[in-house]
Amino acid sequence: MIRAPLGIALLGWLLASCGAPRVTPDSHGVSVKPGPCGRGLVVIESDYQSSNVSLLDFDGQVLSESLLSSSTASSGFGVQLSGDVVAPSSLQEGDDLVLIDRYPAGVLRFVELATARVTAELSVATGFRANPQDYLPLAPGRAYVARYEANPNAGRQAWDDGADILIVDPSVPAITGRIDLSEALAGEPAQFSAHPARLLNVSGRIFALLAAYADDYGSGTASRLVELDPATDSLLSTLVLDGLRGCTSLAASPDDKTLAVACTGDDLRSKQPKLAGSGLALLDIEGTPQLVRRFDAAELGQAVLGFGIAYSAPGQLLFSTLGHFDDAFAPAAQDALLRLDASSGQVDALLQSAGEPFTLGGARCAVSCGACFATDAKRAGGSVLRFAVDADGNFAQPIAFRAETRVGLPPRYLGVF
Questions:
Q1: pLDDT at 5
Q2: Which of 274, 311, 313, 336 could be bridged to 393 by S-S, CB 3.0 to 4.6 A?
């Protein structure tokens, strides 16, 4: 999980809503040739106690109902999948799929696509609950891992500081180093750490998005975008996103000239979420990154932004906002999926959650394939929604696809492979 105040407020309700353990279908590998958008979607289904990983193609057809699940034997590499698993945010190429088992496990799992076999595991916890959020390969023997948590008792073993970018060799696999991000928070009080949430390779340039919370998550400061030098494993630049806090979603424009950032803000604990600090930013990255436009949450639908953002077409953004419950834990507002015209600022509502907040997941788009996707844990028994999108960014009505039907775990997260 991304351990922001939102997680603290909802954990009890989410766990209370989980069902009894269920039988998972047999694992099934795939062999798929890549197309213009990759090979397909990685669908993570979870009730926050156990997980299942399914694969769909970009037309919504099931490739594998269960590549891996919490009931799959660990093959001698360690514990089984927890209920907090995600795929890396970037396209995964090659024969293996990486799965990030976030909190509390702190484990990377390498799964052979053709056989659905776990070939290796790497703990990035180094003695504490590191909560890894993203994985970005750089070369056959090099990758970056964004570790969200800071270690309050660092210094007991190698690479155990946390709130950093860990350097790993996936071919072993092994940890080989770390990038200290404290420089990016220079001038902030000592209780604030970087809390890196996303990694992105844009035409060979490496960016990390820093949520920048206090280590007790009691408050936040302005989030940052940093550019990293993979040749020296150091910071090249830091852009402070003034007025935006809790930024955890990042997307590149189709021409790789602009980044879009979505931010939840730093206070989601109240029954009426506060909009301050929540919003969307557009960053020009043709040179040193700079902020070119900011949209506050109040301009985008009077709701806190969610945890996903994607370009659906040049100048068109797909993103989500979060609903909330009232004091009696009855739904008071629904999640929403929205489209923004970045030039005009026009916002169009595409979809709301089906009667229950916190069930619409993050947005993903395959621009060259003319489609966008979102997970819906409620609609049609829990489904992946596919929107056909034309060249101007106009959306057709969504079609719901079930990635897995035997277990019935609700889909939560999407990746691309």
A1: 45
A2: 313
Cα–Cα–Cα angle for 257, 364, 417, rounded to 5 degrees: 95
**Exposure b/e, 308-347, CB count within 10 A at least 16 = b:** bbbbbbbbbbbbbbbbbbeeeeebebbbbbbbbebeeeeb
**CATH no. for residue 412?**
2.130.10.10
> Domain total for the chain?
1
- Give the H/E segment covering residue 291: strand 290-296
pLDDT tens digit sequence for 340-397: 999 999 999 999 999 999 999 978 999 999 999 999 999 988 999 999 999 888 999 9
Q: Would you say 19 and 47 are in contact if contact means Cβ atoms under 8 Å apart?
A: yes
Q: Residue 326: give the domain boundaries.
A: 5-416
User: DSSP state, 220?
Assistant: B
**What distance in Å separates the CA atoms of residue 391 and residue 397, rounded to the nearest whole number?**
16
pTM given for the model? 0.93
CA separation for the pair 251, 91 (Å, rounded): 12
Q: What 3-state class would DSSP assign to 10?
A: helix
pLDDT over 60 (residue 41): yes
Interatomic CA distance for residues 263 and 307, integer angstroms: 8
Q: Do the beta carbons of residue 199 and residue 253 sit within 8 Å?
A: no
Query: Pairing relation of β-strands 371-376 and 360-366?
Result: antiparallel
| Residue 376 to residue 243: CA distance in whole angstroms | 30
The overall longest dimension of the chain from CA atoms, in Å, is 55
